[in-house]
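Minutes, methods subgroup
Present: GH (chair), OT, SY

1. OT presented the first of two proteins processed in the latest run. Sequence and structure tokens recorded below as shown on screen.
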Amino acid sequence: MTNQSGIARGYFDLETLDRVHDRLRELLAGFGVTVDGIYLCPHGPDEDCDCRKPLPGMVDQAVAELGFDPARAIMVGDKAVDVELGRAVNAAASILVLTGHGMSNQAKCTPDLLAEDFPAAARWIEERFGRGDV
């Protein structure tokens, strides 16, 4: 789930973003990770949409397409809106990673975990929930 206002602002187009997502999938596949879906909000912050985080539109779309229970999901991100989205959909946990924008966002939210990076978040998820339990 990703806000991509750069599309609305004309900084890049959907084709460019698709190439970025293809590369992300390729890199993750090298670690045995499969991405079930990538959901994006292409709107600017001032546009009236229900998909821009922290609103639940992207989660609603993913639930409709993938059939999962958001209460058994974990939101991991580097911005306060990621933690807020997790709270909005009653996710099992919301984690703020300190990489990316995380350092500047940590005072703006109250995550279940403040993680140094994504591997630390993954370790905590495994320790707390096990593999495949959420």
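2. SY then presented the second protein from the same run.
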Amino acid sequence: MPSHNDNHGHPQEPVDTSAGYETSDVRITGIIVFLVALGIFVVVTALLCYGIGAALNAHMNKEDGPTNRWSKTVNIRQLGNMPSNPAMQNKVAELTQTFPTPRVQVDDGNEDVAELHQREDLLLNHYSWVDPSKGTVRIPIERAMEIIAQRGLPVAPAAQLPPLMTGDSRPKVTAPLTNGFARTAYEQELPAVQGNNVGDQPGAGKAGVE
């Protein structure tokens, strides 16, 4: 058996080479201890996570109260996907129209504004009853302007205003703030073939905001 000297020249114990390989490199005991410790750590961590989850669920159940039909968990995978067909789309459109107001606007309010202006045009440009029992009638705005131009406006008595304090002045309005409302781009782009097109009504497109 060969022998070796250390760095200081002292002889070392002879090395047995009859086995043909090194017999002292790997120690199974250390590997077993590591695997056992790892398994214990995993089990303890799992139990700890389960305990924390159970405590949180118990606290949320206590706060939310008992489970009822409104808080019942439903597996949506069993419902499947809704079929996409014209019949289903028509049904959804029907439900959307019959759903009580206020409803979510799907066109940024363009149609609502157009309908509002159409209703305003009907009141401004046509005769309509205000109170049939009293015989009061709403007249078109063009006719009202003609009557005012002929008869003039009634003059109200001057209001008794308190004296101004030092440094104050009375506000004066030199011009009307507006002479009407402006049509939206959505209304201006409506097809002219529509029977109730606001562009075909009297006075449409003439008013603008100053």
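Chair's summary of item 2: The first helix runs from residue 28 to 64.
Next meeting: continue with the remaining queue.
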